[in-house]
Amino acid sequence: MSDTNHSFLSRFIFGIFLSGFVVVSTEANEPPVVGYGWASTILGKDTQESLMLGFELGFSSTLKSELKKTFPISKILRVMSDTSGSPLGAEKVARQLLLDPNLVFLTGFPSSHESLLVSNLVQNQNDTLVLFVASNHQDLSMRGPNVFSSGESMDQIAESFLQISKKRFGGKKALVISNPRAVYSVNLERALKSRILEIPLELRQNFVFANIDGSGRLKTDSLEQLLNGTIDFLIITMYSDDADTLLAQLKGLPKEYPFITGGAWENIDPIRRHAARRKEPIYSAMSFVKGSPDSLNYENKLKVKFGIDPLGIASYGFDAGVIAATTLNRVKGPFTRAAVVKAFREDLCFEKTSIGKVCFPKDGGHANKKLYEVIFKKGEGFVRAKP
Taking a C-beta distance cutoff of 8 angstroms, is the pair 32, 335 a contact? Predict the structure, then answer.
């Protein structure tokens, strides 16, 4: 476990008990701490670093100058990670961050696996605000009024996938491929099945479900469906980190299949290399679309600060950084966890994110984001698909 801010043990604990809860306040000369945590159990280091890069950019560019003059950002933002691969890595990191008496805002933990572990810790802590970065898992909407995510809901993603299926492959048969050992993939499969039950009966049979095995490959019976020509396109529900072996297997088939998948795929070099050699299209649904008017603020800041082209995955981190800094900017008086919750709830809409204005439901849950159909283009990544 690594920690980029080691001043925790020297910090002053100031607490009083009120109605059974500990109300924690930072000492006058101590900074309010925004804790950002992650674990490499599910998402690889490249993806985690892209999200973190986006968060740091959004946070530092939004935090008001008075706060930055009083406290260096390096003292406000405390980043912790676990790269051991332990299934409980995210929980260990979150427990350490929550012990910090100056912590007022908990964020990060982008994968569904991470966010579910951490939300179990905080769902009954009414004075602790949690904003997960990018996590889409549907169950987060039931983890308490102060648990939010900068990502759209899994139900929204499933609906977008079915809309793309109807628009691009109407009446044709899809093989929906999932990883039964991955929380995100299972949750998206469940959301798709729920949505499919709402479509006409004669169309439901056009969706066939299959799992990869422990080696990441399709099982024999599913592979036979591809070989005998009964499948027209694919829907891949897993993270790109899980799909390298699957794509290599699909590449060896006589026929290449178009497919629909999630938005994190553009950030993995091996996946981009697979995609660049393809002739059949790859579709996805994303809230961030490069070159759109609302995204220019984010794109320009990323290019100026880091000299790189914007990635959709980093936009989720950027949005969370903007929201965290805006919340601190709103606090009047001492920084306490309760004061930060109040500041966040003062207005559940936040401006100047990667897609402009983003709003949240009052009872907790996912950001209300419009999703756009995008298509992968060689040398450009995912771009807005033509009608």
Answer: yes
CB 185 within 8 A of CB 179: yes
Q: Rounded CA gap, 333 and 339, in Å?
A: 8
* Residue 236 in tokens: 């891949």
Give the single-character DSSP code of 282: E
Model confidence band, residue 290 (pLDDT cutoffs 50, 70, 90) = confident
Q: Could you report the per-residue pLDDT of 241-251, keeping only the tens digit for each?
A: 788 899 999 98
CA within 13 Å, CB half, 202: 2
Question: How would you classify the pairing of strands 21-24 and 2-3?
Answer: unpaired
Question: How far apart are alpha carbons 105 and 209 in whole angstroms?
Answer: 40
Q: Specify whether the CB–CB gap between 124 and 99 falls below 8 A.
A: no
The whole-angstrom separation of Cα 14 and Cα 3 is 23
Its CATH class, for the domain covering 2-151+295-362, is alpha beta
Query: pLDDT value at position 382?
Result: 85
Show the DSSP H helices in the chain as ranges.
45-62, 65-70, 73-76, 89-99, 112-122, 154-169, 183-196, 201-204, 220-227, 244-251, 269-276, 296-306, 312-330, 337-346
Strands 207-211 and 356-359: unpaired
Q: If one looks up domain 155-286 in CATH, what number appears?
A: 3.40.50.2300
Residues of the chain with CATH 3.40.50.2300: 2-151+295-362, 155-286
The identity of residue 306, as a single letter, is F
Predicted TM-score (pTM) above 0.85: yes
Q: Copy the structure tokens of residue 64.
A: 């008001």
